[in-house]
Amino acid sequence: MTQGISHSERIVLTGVGLTAPNGNNLAEFRQNLLNGVSGVVPYQTRYMGDVLAGVCNFDTLKYQKKKDLRRGTRVGSVSVYCANEAILDSGLDWEAVNRDRVGVYLGITEHGNVETENEVYEISQFQYDTSVWTHHHNPRTVANNPAGEVTINMGITGPHLTIGAACAAGNAGFIQAAQMLKLREVDLAIAGGVSESIHTFGIFASFQSQGALARHDDPTKASRPFDRDRNGIVVAEGGGICTVERLDDALARGAKIYAEIIGYAMNSDAKDFVLPDSNRQEQCIRLALDRAGITPDDVDIVSSHATATEQGDIEESKALRNVFGKSPNVAINNTKSFIGHAMGAAGALELLGNIPSFEDDTVHATINVDHLDPECALDQLVLNHPRKKANIRCILNNSFGMLGINSVLIVKKFDE
User: Fold this and answer.
1) Is 305 a catalytic residue?
2) CA distances for 22 relative to 25, 76, 201, angstroms
3) Is there a contact between 383 and 148 (Cβ–Cβ < 8 Å)?
4) Is 371 one of the annotated active-site residues of the chain?
């Protein structure tokens, strides 16, 4: 897969920091995925009352002070936590790193809604007197905020970008990092995806108006991708961030290498604001495979995007059926069934939740599939219980988003 490519062109993931509704580090997250532990809980949101959500519970004061939390944003706090955890896990001598040569590339679905909703609500309590509007509003709501908060917290003086790519954004963060490293714009990237979506009532209200907001008497069973009785999305927050390096740099310092990026692709449906297109999804998957120099039979795990919306799950199933057919090698799973849809963080968390399979030779399941939708009945789905699979070496990660943006990232187990 990487034969003939120099070490300076090969890109690897070397440190992991994450917070998910069912885990605040990779080991905890992975264990809960293998054990079938959901992170979906009852949640209260303004004007709507009781909903269901994937809620993170990380130590916000581990890398920030209370003043930082008051001034910044929830997604900034998620980003700061995950970025610092990734550096800690990477084994880098952070004090010796040239911060001018570090880039921060974080994917998001949306940003600024939380702060705007909060401030409008605040002034509504004072007859809409804008004199009580916070002077922190502008730096909180600019689109580069999450990545920018990381640079301030960590003293990073290289470039930073927050990449708006809807729910394809987690993959987009890693893709941007790989490209910047190959161009030698930076020597180290801090990259992935983040989300604070549960803190805006608007996202719940919009999904509800579409008939796409999940409901269930048991919160842990609300997120049901591929199930005949699925009734919508569970909104979640979270973050998944990695240190990303050129292979020769990682080898020179004896880094632990989690995975190597070998292929990626992004494209657009150019069709509809919200309805997906299996043809363009298939095209994106095939393009990523071609760039990786592999065939569908070389893929061991497909981490599906499926959100538990009726048409979304069916369209992706069509694309996967067309690409992978009845390939006996591939196993298909879904992480949203455990944590809900973490929006900008979804692709990153779903990739990271699967990467430990390189070590434990286990494919985590898609849970909550009691009655498989016949239109989603793929032979390779791993349902309700994890599956042992020998010699797992390649993972393909799907992430698709509104306005028809599609992303696919392929990683492999590192070898020389």
Assistant:
1) yes
2) 9, 20, 22
3) no
4) no
CA–CA separation, 178 and 241 (whole Å)? 14
CA distance 416 to 394: 15
Catalytic residue among 160, 199, 305, 364: 305
* Catalytic position from the list 167, 242, 284, 394: 167
16 dihedral zone (left: phi>0; alpha: psi -120 to 50; beta): beta
Residue 45 backbone phi and psi in degrees, to 5 = -130, 150
Angle separating helix axes 310-324 and 278-292, nearest 10 degrees: 40
Rounded to an integer, the average pLDDT of 387-416 is 97
Q: What radius of gyration, in Å, describes the C-alpha atoms of the chain?
A: 20
Question: Is a pLDDT exceeding 80 seen at residue 215?
Answer: yes
- DSSP element (H, E) containing 52: strand 49-54
Structural contact between residues 265 and 235, judged by C-beta atoms closer than 8 angstroms: no
* Residue at token pair 């209200």: 205
The first and second tokens of residue 386, run together, are 């994890």
At residue 373, the 3 state secondary structure works out as coil
In angstroms, the CA 225 to CA 258 distance is 28
* Catalytic (active site) residue 341: yes
The model's pTM is 0.97
Encoded tokens for 284: 């994106």
163-211 pLDDT, tens per residue? 999 999 999 999 999 999 999 999 999 999 999 999 999 999 999 999 9
Q: Per-residue pLDDT averaged across 329-353, rounded?
A: 98
Nearest to 336 by CA among 240, 259, 258, 222: 222
Candidates 111, 199, 216, 341; catalytic one:
341
Question: How far apart, in whole angstroms, are the C-alpha atoms of residue 361 and residue 68?
Answer: 41
Domains along the chain with CATH numbers: 11-252 (3.40.47.10), 264-412 (3.40.47.10)
